[in-house]
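Worked Example 4.2. Consider the chain below.
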Amino acid sequence: MIFSKKQNKLILSLITFFVILSLAISAFSTETASIDEQIEQLRNILGSSSSYSAFQTTMLLKSAQNLIESGISFEDTRGIIENSVEKSLDAYSIKKVFDVILEAQQENLPTEPLFNKVKEGFAKNVNKTIIISVISAKAENLRKAAEILDEAQQEGLEINGREEMVKILADSLENDVPDESLSWLVKTGTTEGKSILEISEISEELSYLSLLATDSGLSPEEISLLFKKAIENSSNIEEICENIQNSLETKISTIRIEGGGEAKPSTTSVSGALPTSSEEGPVSIGETPPTQEAGEAPTETGGAPEPSTSPEEETPPPPEN
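Applying the procedure from the previous section yields the following structure tokens:
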């Protein structure tokens, strides 16, 4: 009777094992079939365009599969391919976009900001080179933001809402807020128990001040020094922001006095900003291109005007007697 109970337990254990194994195999087969179906959908999208060779199609499908298997949604992956086909983006540029996103995903960085930049670029018909440059810069800022949080955690600080914090800090880095200032913000804000919303508001304020400084013609080194002095002179966040504002106003006034007029705006654009269109001309924002007045004949440049004939030269000589 004891032997029979042992047999029953053994049989029951074997049945349970095979049921679990069967379910696992079934789930794996379903997932594999699902990925195969997704890749086939992407193949059909690429095949709808004559712009991609068989080699390029295989290359892109492999990159797309790597994205999906790493955890990127099929919908996001398909969206990039659909937009790329619609905008006639070449295969190697698509792969570069995929590579930047995959690298960020493998480093556990938020990828949503990267997809947003790509979508923005497609919507504005931005040149492919600019799209790749912008998302690469965004990925680098996300990487720096993650390093700032890692440093704070190594010092024993507990960071809540890490992914959201990385996005917030990356946006500030994009607006040229110095790394040291953001590191100080994370440590001070966390120590004081500030919420993510509060830290986000302070970060946005620092971004505003940094953009104001950049537009006033200050170099990144000058901005970094200005922020550093403000932080060293106070431990209160509100006072620090006020000190930065006051120092900035003083600096702008000095520039105006020395320059004898308005502060010279910065000629550099904000890192990561996408232009409205790749078709934009060289005319700067706020400037009006020279126009010809109505009714005025165009004049050739570089040519000297012909001398006018005086009335005396036009009057014939009197007849001789």
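The CA atoms of residues 128 and 275 lie 12 Å apart. Residues 26-32, 263-270, 278-316 have pLDDT under 50 and may be disordered. Compare this with Example 4.1 before moving on.
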